[in-house]
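Fold this complex.
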Amino acid sequence: MPLVLTNAHLIDCVHPQPLAGASITVEDGRIVEVLDGQRSPATQGAQVIDLQGAYLLPGLWDVHVHLEWPRLLDAKLAELTVQYSTNATHGLTQAGITGIRTAGVPHFIDVALKRAYETGRLIGPRIFAGGYFLTTTAGHALTSGFALECDGPSGFVRTIREQMQNGVDHIKLNLTGGIMGPFWDRHWHSFLLQEELEAAFTICRQRGYPVMAHAANPESVKAAIQLGAHTVEHGYIMDEDCLRLFLEHDTWYIPTLGITHLTPAQASSSWECCWLDRRGLPPDLARRADDAVAEHRMWFQRALQAGVKMALGSDLRPLRDAVWLEMGLWVKDGATPWQTLLAATRHAAEVCGVGHEVGTIEVGKLADLIVVRENPLDDVQNLRQLDLVFKAGRLVADHRSKRHA
Amino acid sequence: MDLLLKGCHIIDATTPEVRRDAYVLIQDDTIASVGSGALPTAERILDLEGAYLLPGLWDVHTHLRPSTWLGWEPPQAPAEAILQHGQCAMDALQAGVTALRVVGIQDWADVAWRHAFNTGACVGPRLFCCGYGLRTTAGHSASLSGTTSMLTHVDGPEAMIKAVRTQIKHGVDQIKLVTTGGIMGTGHDVMSAVMFLREELDAAMRIARQRGKAVAVHATAAEAVTWAVQAGAHSIEHGYLLDEEAVALMVKHGVYYVPTLALSHLTQDQAGTPFEHTYCHQHVLPEVFRERANTFAPAHEASFRLALEAGVKIASGSDQGPPQEAALLEIEFLARCGLGSYGAIVAATLTAAEVCQAAERLGSVEVGKLADLIVVADNPLEDIHHLRRLQMVLKGGEVVVDHTRRNACGHP
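Structure:
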């Protein structure tokens, strides 16, 4: 049965102006018609939902996701699997996140979730799975449970092949330290030897797997881009050459602002404060974030001005809150709501290689959609007023009665 | 928030009499009153329009598997198997199965899902968990999968002590021992032998008793059943080859019997209803298991009747998958093989709750119990298959399934 959504303010993520009085028709999971207020859709034999002027837009995305929350001590495989499954489902149903790209998940739980969701019996977002996060001995995120320590060119090659065999979509490669780590894990340090880097990128290129490169200093960002990274994550410290290379190589930048911006000293909204209360960030890590934020913000703003391709990835947990928080930070740092929304929809889908299928509301695309009460282009936090979520035309969450009761 | 279900006929699982034109008042998650005549006030009222209201159904012998026994499993990553188990459980709730006892599963997946369902992170049935089933080396080979197994092999009393303690550490509710072979086995997996040493059995029971954990014992032949009952078993699973002595001992010790009739009866050759035909068509047993099932079915049924006549407490457990289909098939077998409709309903509700040591709050429609309820369109006492005409499922007072759309249910 066709699904017709009428009386919408349509934000299609192609045109920056919302289209009032719009309607769309969905058949077999795909958008078959988009009409402006001048024309009425055929509704005979269709399920019709009158959106009463609410805002209809593509589902949201997060292209830098870890699924754990809360962190379990000594967690067993089954506990992790169930927790990740629940968190991913809640991201979809409670925040309207219809697609994610994972950046480090143990035991290939992300691959398992992807397969389970593809059957349609369990409900969750589209998943682009990265499996484990690959670093070196004494590398980054070692206590996370999702990092694998690889050493030497053949160590990287073998581990990357094992990732492929286990069904990942991309390879998450760690080039540098990060903000959240022990004292020897510093984001200005590069961790890989040149021959390890080359071996890792070579096997990925040969097998056609995109590399999601965690790179936090100028040297590593440049190396990643030149070796063919698909996306560069974090980029806390960069230089003008980095920006030039991004543009030359048409490489994506995923800034993950939340890592340096969400500390008690910087929190500026009740949502951020509430999230920090639950996060329980240790003071030394908060200080590292506070020390790094000015430079990170500057390079984000410079990249935005220079026209570097960017998409929204949060690196925050839980998924349900992640996109709303990260979008707030983009706007706080000077991106427009429109730029921010594109980063979280159309551009994120492009990062995952499915820009032709999802990410905008256009005829022929899969109907991954959300409906929110107020205009998110006035205030991106209006995305929190979520009414409906559709994945491939299937209604997976309806919050209208709860919100209006 | 209270909810009044009115205009229903109640089969409460404590008496075979149907309480006609009655109501149930639910306050929060609990049944606050049951009656007929003048209605109490309530914030929400649902008119069930003459439908039948019963306790939610149980299956106390499941492995949360998606199909029958194949003897091999397609290669599957552990995380995928864990997700599939949760899916099986959630699907069962949709079919009116509000509680399951999981008697053997890999990676303590049952415990993890129990937590998710209890905290409300997702909506599923109540789970009572055994974690891994314990068998010996060269014991019953329930699954020949190379990567995952629902059974772990343990040899010697000391290893058994450690194994039982390990299950307890991971949060199980009961302990499952597999002391004999079974129908779904081959080669060394014979039905007659007791595979545990007596001292292994005693060692397991000692720890379980000390830590207050009931023990479910997979035992097929009479000797194994006798050993298990003497050692302190809480329930006997399967019992394909019982004798007078074993049955008398079960009665004397008040031990529960979970016959799992579906294991021997659910073959293409024996299928007697359209539901059984459909199941056997969709879930094909390998030839060797099918032959063994057909061979053992008459003795199994005779054992069941022997236990029934002696007054052994019988509970419904299917040992087949998926539970949303198998639970109902087992209830139908129990009814047909001698329990009748009412007896089968009690076996799948109140007695099942007793097996799970949860009858104080679950298993019947009585004041003070948790409101795990189903509503079916017609009287299942007249035809047990009417349990399939499911209209609604409530768990803890929440409407989780509503096929009649009397009430918007909270989950898509």
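DSSP finds eleven helices and 18 strands in chain B.
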